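Whiteboard transcription, Tuesday session. T.W. wrote the C-alpha cells on the left side:
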C-alpha cells in the first residue's frame, strides 16, 4: 500500500471533523450517526443528559475509545500518528479525590509537555508548569502530592496539565465541576485568552454557567445521537441556581435537530 505524504492542513480545514461516527462499548451501541465539524477558533459546548454519550464522544475524538463506524479527523488528519497531538490539550472528567497518583502537582503538569515518544520534557518545562499552575491558582501547591489534594484541586492540576501545552485544540470534560466559583471564573478567563489567541475549544458542560459568554455553539446529545447543533440554549432562570445538578435538553426525542427551541433545565 502506498503511503502518500499527509496533505498540509488548510486554514479553513475543520479542527474536528466527524462523519457517521458510531461507537459500541460492552456490546452496547453508545453513539450512532454523529456528523459534526468544528472550525478553527470555535468554542463549542457539548451538552446532554447523564449517560447521553458526551464523554464517550470526546474520548472517541481523541482516540481513547475505538471507533466502530465512520471517521474522525483532527486538524485534517485521520486519528493516528499523523495527528499533531502536541497541539491538543485534554482535561478528563474529574478524578475521584483519593487517587494513588504518586506524583506532586508540578510533576503531573510537566507530564503534559511529554508527547509521543519524547520522554524528556523541554528545558523550560518547570517554569512553564509553574506558570500553568499559577493560572489555575495552584502555584503554592506545586510540590504537594496529588493524592493529598482535594478533588477540586486535582481538577485544577489536570486543567494546568492541559494548559501547559498552549494547545490549539482544548477539549474539556466538565472542567469546572467541583471547583469553587472564583476559581471557575479564573479558569474561564484563561480559556478566553487561549480562544483570543485562536484556540478551538470543545467543552462538555452540565450547565453553561460561567462559560456562557464564551459559548458560540452548542451540540446536544440524546441517547447517543446528536439532536441539536446550533445556538446555545438558554438556562431556565428558575432552575439556574447553584446546587442544582441535573441538566438535560428539552428536545422532542423524536425530532432530532429541534433547533433553538431547546432549553436547558437544571433540576434539583
Ligand atoms: N467502557 C464502557 N463500557 C460499557 N459502557 C460504557 C462504557 N463507558 C461508558 N459506557 C456507557 O455509555 C453511556 C454513555 O456514557 P458517557 O459517560 O459517555 O455519558 P455522559 O453523557 O458523558 O454522562 P455523564 O454526564 O454522566 O458523564 C452510558 O450508558 C455508560 O454507562
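and on the right, the sequence the group agreed on:
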Amino acid at each position: 500500500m502506498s503511503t502518500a505524504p499527509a496533505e498540509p492542513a488548510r486554514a479553513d480545514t475543520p479542527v474536528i471533523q466527524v462523519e457517521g461516527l458510531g461507537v459500541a462499548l460492552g456490546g452496547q451501541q453508545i453513539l450512532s450517526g454523529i456528523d459534526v465539524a468544528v472550525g478553527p477558533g470555535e468554542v463549542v459546548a457539548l451538552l446532554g443528559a447523564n449517560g447521553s454519550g458526551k464523554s464517550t464522544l470526546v474520548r472517541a475524538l481523541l482516540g481513547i475509545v475505538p471507533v466502530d463506524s465512520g471517521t474522525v479527523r483532527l486538524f485534517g488528519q485521520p486519528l493516528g500518528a499523523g495527528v499533531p497531538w502536541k497541539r491538543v490539550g485534554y482535561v478528563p472528567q474529574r478524578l475521584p479525590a483519593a487517587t494513588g497518583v504518586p506524583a506532586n502537582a508540578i510533576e503531573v503538569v510537566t507530564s503534559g509537555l511529554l508527547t509521543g515518544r519524547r520522554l524528556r520534557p523541554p528545558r523550560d518545562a518547570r517554569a512553564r508548569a509553574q506558570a500553568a499552575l499559577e493560572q489555575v491558582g495552584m502555584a503554592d501547591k506545586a510540590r504537594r502530592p496529588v493524592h493529598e489534594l482535594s478533588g477540586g484541586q486535582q481538577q485544577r492540576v489536570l486543567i494546568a496539565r492541559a494548559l501547559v501545552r498552549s494547545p490549539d485544540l482544548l477539549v474539556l470534560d466538565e472542567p469546572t465541576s467541583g471547583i469553587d466559583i472564583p476559581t471557575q471564573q479564573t479558569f474561564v478567563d484563561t480559556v478566553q485568552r487561549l480562544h483570543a489567541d485562536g484556540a478551538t475549544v470543545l467543552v462538555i458542560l452540565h450547565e453553561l454557567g460561567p462559560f456562557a459568554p464564551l459559548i458560540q455553539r452548542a451540540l446536544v446529545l440524546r441517547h447517543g445521537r446528536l439532536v441539536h447543533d446550533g445556538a446555545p440554549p438558554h438556562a431556565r432562570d428558575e432552575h439556574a441556581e447553584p446546587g442544582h445538578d441535573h441538566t438535560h435538553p428539552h428536545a422532542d426525542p423524536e425530532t432530532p435537530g429541534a433547533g433553538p427551541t431547546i432549553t436547558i433545565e437544571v433540576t434539583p
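Someone added at the bottom: Helices lie at 54-61, 105-111, 125-135, 151-163, 181-196.
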